[in-house]
Structure prediction request, 346 residues.
Amino acid sequence: MKTVKFTVSALAIIAASTSGALARDQIQSAGSSTVLPYATIVAEAFGENFDFPTPVVESGGSGAGRKKLCEGVGENTIDIANSSSRIKQSDIDNCAANGVTEIMEVRIGYDGIVFASDINGAEFAFTPADWYNALAAEVVKDGAVVANPNKTWADVNAAFPAQDILAFIPGTKHGTREVFDTKVIEAGCKATGALEAFTAAAGGDEKEGAKKCMNLRTDGASVDIDGDYTETLSRIDANKNAIGVFGLSFYQNNTDKLRVATMGGVVPSTESIATGEYPVSRPLYFYVKNAHLGVIPGLKEYIEFFVSDDMAGPNGPLAAYGLVSDPELAATQAMVAAETPMGPLN
Prediction:
């Protein structure tokens, strides 16, 4: 196999989130800000090593990317949606309604969600229960459900400093938010007994109880960030006591600015995610419109290059940037080679 060249600049990664669509002989992708740097690294290397234009990679959020993918088939629609959460049935239904009937689901590896604050700030050892009690609209106090009275992190956990609760979390259009809601807020709701209380109040309907878990406070302690992780970082720079939610790879590339917390007693790292020890990890995906294969120049070659050992393997540049290599990468490579569309959601 030929030697692959890499000359990706930080400027190229940042610029990719704002670049406009170019000539349609270029592959076009959009979606997750978490997948953005990985896709940009691959796109730049692809442009340098193949006789095709460098693909266009845009951000906008996982949900927005999947929505764009499902707008229809044709040169005025994108080819790939990058996503830090799995596609939903509502996305698949929207795609089908617009003539997008075959979608390839490509898992590129794994990442973790981390909780980080200013490098000079206090150390935290969190559990999901801590985050639920900090951000939920209602919590359980002395056996009763009450409006969240907690003002400082010390109110949440006596081991924490008495600094005001201010958390910058991903907005609802981001795939990271879906994982945060499920693995942190919902898990914390259950651990604190709030889910049981909400379910009882709903006449035993656990589904309704779980919905109540998702209601976060609106008094300024929890702030949705609709931009990417660079916006969260800038907010923390301006609010030194704030805590932000980031992807592991973003944190690993900003360790000079951020101090990371443990979750459930585990330090987030590529190793703790690879072993499954770190509790807040998630697979990363991109979704391909199969109708564009063989039509958009270089699309098949780009997809195969993305999941190649040279790029997505444990010794590739994506791992060097922070991606946890998928132990089942060979199966993904075979699926891509066969252009196998995804089946029904499990």
